[in-house]
Amino acid sequence: MFAVSVSTISRIYITWVRFLALTFEGSILRWPSKGEIKSHIPSSFSKYPDTRVIIDCTEFFIEKPSSPSAQKATWSDYKHHNTVKLLVGITPSGAFSFISKLWSGSTSDRRVTQESGLIDLLEEGDHVMADRGFTIRDLLTKRGVKLNMPPFTKGNQCWFCYIPIVILFLFSHIYLLSKPHSLKGMWPLPFPLREGGGEHPK
Questions:
Q1: What is the pTM of this model?
Q2: Is residue 1 included in any domain, yes or no?
Q3: Residues 64-122 pLDDT 10s
Q4: Across the strands, what pairs with 124?
Q5: Are strands 51-61 and 103-104 parallel, antiparallel or unpaired?
Q6: 75: part of which helix (H) or strand (E)?
Q7: Has residue 10 been placed in a domain?
């Protein structure tokens, strides 16, 4: 339509994403204090008043790497595709408060959480909300932090009636971010990945 190659569009897109990330670093995405969280906590969190952050991991489809080791590192058994993943956290009021660096798709949610730096931000007495796939209770307990996993079912009622609406807000963000067709194709891999499933270098 515009007589521009895919590679050119890709370079322009990646350049602007990096520029915007540097421009808005520390202003759009920040870790709020306990006082800020409590002063804006919605009434739907009456059963979870000490919640500091709600977390989930999401994966993005990428092009198949040419290196066999990178293919193995980025292969996701869950998505049945080569992916990169990151950990996302939002406050009870629905604001993004944490986004980790990208990791290869084969990396476990536990490892991403453990090495993302999120746990270092938590304080004693904080509560973290996550789904049952996060086997991180022992990691949080060491810091005096509690892991809350709201029930997904109760009697004959639908599960989302018993989960604060902000979790649905998070899942909707994750869904939109992770849909590859929203970008009309798979993401290229513009950076090297360490062998064995580590995070990518800056």
A1: 0.70
A2: no
A3: 989 999 899 999 998 899 998 989 898 988 888 998 888 999 999 999 999 999 999 99
A4: none
A5: unpaired
A6: strand 75-76
A7: no
